[in-house]
């Protein structure tokens, strides 16, 4: 009898442990968007967007701006103005102004999100081309709440490979990995918010350059991250009918990437990209059935030039967002070990040979 009683009491105690530190949602200010930027005097400005659960409130979203020394310090300042205790456990996005991204050691400001176990590390890291305040205080009339709108915008664009989607956890991995440099989503506010592509950072996590949505697809392929959709619209180099440009659209869901490494006083990377595509749009007369090989070759030539242009751009900036350094470490470790702390410089001198092989697997329902 005593044993049964003790067992029942133990079960009740176990069930109650989850309720000890419970807090009503009305008593918490959930930071769904955190913004970090610098003012005109280069002082840190922290922004917060959180939902309002009060029935009497007409505006269901609360936005606050404070000047603080650190992100943790800003929480105390937020608590002096918001109605409930500030929490970062549900943060969806961290918006970082490009002005701050160019500063050395800016990454120290997000230390609290890694150190405090109550914070989430699935937060999306986003670079803002312009003042963060323009994004935070934007109130679109035809969109849902800003945190939901921006989170869905990043997720959808990532599935179409228009931009990368980098969580705090992934960002930490990329910034601590010597064999590659980090890349994060980039957005801009004009008359509306739009994703402009991807911001590429250097080995000290400072902003280096931006790439377009079209270039981002090439980035993801070279990273061997080929999930999602890869729709392309390109001008193929065909000479026919006196036309200068021959526009063609195609999609591919089957991409295979293989990279080999050699070393001969510098690193040499040979990357083979195999793509099986389906034509979705063709704005010029062409007999695809008869001249399949000719069209495949022209697509390969165009894509290969695009890959080479993107690689050249990153080598000039001495950054490696593709992760070629990871291959160098895996297959040529003795040589990699000598340059691991200056990989950007070594990568800028490397030979990157990309060979594209295209197979047309479909041309649509009409000839």
Write the layout of secondary structure elements.
Elements (H helix, E strand, L loop, with lengths): L1 H15 L11 E3 L2 E6 L5 E8 L9 E7 L3 H8 L6 E3 L5 E5 H4 L9 H5 L8 E5 L3 H5 L9 H14 L8 H9 L6 E7 L3 E9 L5 E5 L1 H10 L9 E5 L9 E18 L3 E16 L9 H25 L7 H8 L1 H7 L3 H6 L2 E12 L5
Parallel strand pairs: 1-5, 2-6, 6-7, 7-8, 13-14
Antiparallel strand pairs: 2-3, 3-4, 8-9, 9-10, 11-12, 12-13
Helix pairs in contact: 10-11
The shape is: globular
Structural class: alpha/beta
Q: Report how far apart the termini are.
A: 83 Å
Question: For the largest beta sheet, what order do the strands appear in spatially?
Answer: 4-3-2-6-7-8-9-10
Estimated radius of gyration: 25 Å
Overall domain count = 2
Q: Specify the helix fraction band.
A: 25-40%
Number of helices: 12
Low-confidence runs: none
What is the typical, i.e. mean, pLDDT?
88
Q: Helix and strand string, N-terminal first?
A: HEEEEHEEHHEHHHEEEHEEEHHHHE
Query: What kind of sheet is the major sheet?
Result: 8 strands, mixed
Beta-strand percent range: 25-35%
Instruction: Find the count of extended strands (DSSP E, 2+ residues).
Output: 14
